[in-house]
Design a protein that fits this description.
Blueprint (H helix, E strand, L loop, with lengths): L3 E4 L5 E4 L23
Antiparallel strand pairs: 1-2
């Protein structure tokens, strides 16, 4: 699967994975939480 990864100035990461054979769009919102992300 081909994809493109972008990081905005505020640190938000965006991954785009076009699937031209489908006529739908899927949006996933994932957050980095838990002890791994604590400072």
């Amino acid at each position: 699967m081909n994809y493109k990864k972008y990081t905005l100035k505020n640190g938000l990461r965006i991954i785009l994975a076009p699937m031209h054979e489908t006529e739908t769009a899927t949006v996933m919102i994932m957050t980095g939480v838990g002890s791994r992300y604590e400072t």
